[in-house]
Amino acid sequence: ITVHVDHHTFTGRICETARGTILTPGQIAGLVFDAEIERVVFATPSRVIDVSHRTRFFRGGLRRAIEVRDRHCTHPGCTVPAHHCDIDHIVPYDQGGTTTQDNGRLLCPHHNHWTYHHHQTTARPATAGPGPP
User: Fold this and answer.
1) Model-level pTM?
2) What integer pLDDT is reported at residue 60 of this predicted model?
3) Which of 42, 82, 97, 130 could form a disulfide with 67, with the two C-beta atoms 3.0–4.6 Å apart?
4) Diameter of the chain by CA atoms?
5) Gap between the Cα atoms of 33 and 12, Å rounded
6) Do residues 97 and 119 touch, judged by C-beta distance below 8 A?
7) How far apart (Å, rounded) are the C-alpha atoms in residues 20 and 33?
8) For the segment 85-101, what is each residue's pLDDT rounded down to a tens digit?
9) In angstroms, rounded to a whole number, what is the distance separating the alpha carbons of residues 110 and 49?
């Protein structure tokens, strides 16, 4: 759910979803614990001047910075160009990885899928003891 809240609304009692549905803060309060909270500050209705740090996806300037830096898939020997690549979290987001330039890398869809599958099949259960020294 995307909820748009300006300063006046934030101090008031009404919020609006991206689709225009009006909600009271009480209606969305129960969702906050499972939600990803992202703050976007606009200078004008169409000009973003700040985006909060904890986001799930690499978008906008952050995505572009990684595309320019990496130029192509970072998997050894792969030369798929940036505009055909996904941006992957080096430390997976669901394992606490941040959506930052230092934790992002370009991977073509094939290698991104391979990396995701590799993380899923090699992750040890939470109850496992420490790994080898």
Assistant:
1) 0.51
2) 85
3) 82
4) 56
5) 21
6) no
7) 22
8) 999 999 988 788 888 89
9) 34
